[in-house]
Amino acid sequence: MAGSGDTDGEVVFELEHCIRIFKGGRVERYFGSDPVPASTDVATGVASKDRAISPDVAVRLYLPPVTGASGEGEGKKLPLLVYFHGGGFCLHTAFNFVFHAYLTSLAARTRAIVVSVEFRLAPEHPIPAAYEDSWQAVVWAASHASGSGEEAWLTEHADFSRVYLAGESAGANIAHNMAMRAGTKGLPQGGKVNGVVLVHPYFLGGGNVPSEDWDPAMAENVVKMWSVVCPATTGVVDDPWINPLADGAPALDGLACGRVLVCLAEKDVISDRGRAYCEGLKASGWAGEVEVVEVAGHGHCFHLVDFNGDEAIRQDDAIAEFVNR
């Protein structure tokens, strides 16, 4: 048992069966940290491989079959989907079995090349490390638009007129922030972001919202989690990173795309934050189109538990239609 003077023994944040963070900086993760190797999926034909971008950032790429059984589709370029995994900025790896299986399935369903980003986790690397790493990956992927990049899957098969940013939970938050940064800084080779897919986005805000009543303890945890992963936050729920509607947040009309798809789950405690984001985006003067797909009877990131379930397939079908329109 830790002594009273042992600050490392004081738990400052815990999600049961997931993570425990101690005041002294020690972190214990119980789920999502074990990688599985890249492979070719027999059922779908989707191939995957890993590439290091820098000492801090890596990606796993997913390539669906580029030809049909009789050569149909040969030479046709595929949409490019840059994907950011969830986990509250402090859990999971892009290479774990859950995201590997899900993104193999999503690549097959969307017929898109997926670039899944491995970014550094908090609290060892507090916010904004995840955003900086993710931007590095976006720029790296976009740099292949010239046709001379280092990754052949991108130079040979990606259609850089159809670039999408996507993610779930914290990854959806990252996707939004990357689209905002692209609106300010632009992308290499004159690249453009066509659309953003936000699945159960991790946004916070002041006051209470009705969706928090589904699970008040979890609603409290998602606020506490932010204070742990971003200890330098300007005001917890009013930090523009986590609350795009906060006073002082960048104007949403600067979002670097013309289309946004937001997926919501009825029993997700932060679903009303996602709904408010949609309304705020519409009211901002942004000239694009917002689409919302909501699933009844399910909670946060339900699709990662069973992405072959009927409602998960409906959600992924909406993503596929959005990406291929």
Automatic annotation (TrEMBL):
Q: Name one Pfam family in it.
A: Abhydrolase_3
InterPro entries according to UniProt: AB_hydrolase_3, AB_hydrolase_fold, Carboxylest/Gibb_receptor
- Give the Alpha/beta hydrolase fold-3 domain ranges: 81-303
Q: Which domain of life is it from?
A: Eukaryota
- Which Gene Ontology molecular-function terms are recorded? hydrolase activity
Protein's name in the database: Alpha/beta hydrolase fold-3 domain-containing protein
Origin species, per record, is Oryza punctata
